[in-house]
Every structure is written in structure tokens, then in C-alpha cells.
Amino acid sequence: MQKYASPWRLSVLNVLFLCTGNSARSILAEVILNELGRDVFRAYSAGSHPAGQVNPGALQKLAAEGHSVQGLSSDSWEKYSGDGAPELDVVITVCDNAAGESCPVWSGSPVTAHWGIPDPAAFQNRDEQRIAFDVAYAQLRRRIEAFLKLPHKPRSHEEAARLLQQIHREESQHESI
Length: 177
What we know:
Layout: E1 13-18, H1 25-36, E2 41-46, H2 56-64, E3 90-93, H3 96-99, E4 111-114, H4 126-148, H5 157-175
Parallel strand pairs: 1-2, 1-3, 3-4
Helix pairs in contact: 1-4, 2-4, 4-5
């Protein structure tokens, strides 16, 4: 897999992906960014109401794409606030529920964005769920690849947030065609 250099800064950029249950979409995003942005980005994932375990469909999709699934866990977002929490540079919600919740105070002063991705775990039928995980993985991967290719260091939090939202809008337009 291709690695990307950070256009944002020279040190490691900490990115937190949020979803209510932290069992599927946020886990997919964490793994994709950690692999594609290795040594430049450090991705984490968490949920406001963590499921307590990673969805088996997410684990299957990640394994099928050649990613390691070792050490993945469904964590509370409280782990990323307060003393001892990593300083966050970017926080991205990947589900609409988490986007509307009141978040804790994060360590650092992160840029925030929302990339709403439909929940693949919501499907009960195994075949529909497999297809939904394929779609969610592809949507997240395209957004993360676009994030990694940003051409310059943003001048402000507002510009960084605008660029991240622009990625989501542009990818969403391509997906609906």
C-alpha cells in the first residue's frame, strides 16, 4: 500500500474517528488511516456509547482487504479527554448520531469535521451487511486518501475544517452519481 506524507505538519498528526458504538465505521477508518498514513499519522477511534466489541463484519472486511485486526477494540471517547489523553489534531465523526452529540473536551485543540457514512452494522441480512461493509470501507478509504493528498498546510482551523468537509461533499457527490 502507498504511504503518504503529511501536508499538515512535520510531526505525527493524531486523528480520532468517532461513532456512537465504535464497532464498525470508526474502526474501519482508524485501520485505514493507520496503514496508509503510517509513521506520519496516528489514528484512534472511539464511541460515545461503545458497543464493547468490534463488529465481526468490520473484522471480516478489514481482513479481506489485507489489514491486521490485532488489538482492535471498541473504546469510549472518554479515553481521549482529560489527563493522559493524546493531544488530538483532528476529530472526525463518521455517523450522524455522534455528530449531534455534545463531545467531551479533547486534549489539544483539534479541527473537527463530519463524514456521515451509512451504518453497515444496521443490516440484519448477512449478504446485505457484507455489501454495506464493502461500501462503507470504499467510502472511508476514498475520503482518507483525499485527506492524505491535501496539497498544503492549512493556515487556520477553519480552513482545515473546510478542506475536510469539502472532501466529504466531493466524495458524496461522486457516490450518488
